[in-house]
Amino acid sequence: MRLSNWAHELAEAILCKNHSHHWEYTKLVVHRAEVLGPILLPEDEADVLSAAAWLHRVGAAVELQETGFVPLDSARYIASMTTFPRRVVALVAHQSSAATKAVERGLSAEMTCYADEETLTRDALWHCVTPVLPANLELAHRARQEASTEFLGKDHPIALAHEEGQTRIREASSRVMLALETSDHH
Asked: Which domain does 31 fall in, by range?
């Protein structure tokens, strides 16, 4: 059985019934991953991407929360299973520049046990997980971030970590878009 099939079964069992909004979002992320993966990556890498996409929100389930930080709680739960390789766990832990967001929550030390592989597979996961917002919601999101930075001060560690995370996500998406432009499937 493919890794992504096991991941699908686990995510569905955890999220489908009591966490339907996380389940619906997960399915959107997986759809993006399953479209991008075969274009950008070899088959085994596309399967890893799909598996990480299925599992990236399992830590949102209240019964699995330890820290309240979904990437870390998801990774911890997945790590407790023997089915999934450490690499998938690490991809889930580092989704969407989570290490920079962990700073805001005082969880940086906990993140260090998961290696951030900095590969096209990782970049593709970040690209798939990052929501594409309609223009009005994007503006509202930016306005909230700017207000938070103004309140905290641009040199505050949380404001700096947030800006670094956003920069890293944009860079990852740029690498994915460049890889798409230069792929043979283009």
From this structure: 3-182
End-to-end CA distance of the chain: 30
Predicted model pTM:
0.86
List CB contacts of 81: < 8 A, sequence separation 6 or more: 10
H helix or E strand, kind and range, residue 134: none
Q: What is the DSSP string of the chain?
A: --HHHHHHHHHHHHHTTT-HHHHHHHHHHHHHHHHHHHHHS-HHHHHHHHHHHHHTTGGGSGGG-SSS-HHHHHHHHHHTSSSS-HHHHHHHHTGGGHHHHHHHHT-HHHHTTS----SHHHHHHHHHHS----HHHHHHHHHHHHHHHHHH-TTSHHHHHHHHHHHHHHHHHHHHHHHHHHSTT-
| Number of domains the chain is built from | 1
The predicted-structure confidence for 116-133, as pLDDT tens digits, reads as follows 999 999 999 999 998 654
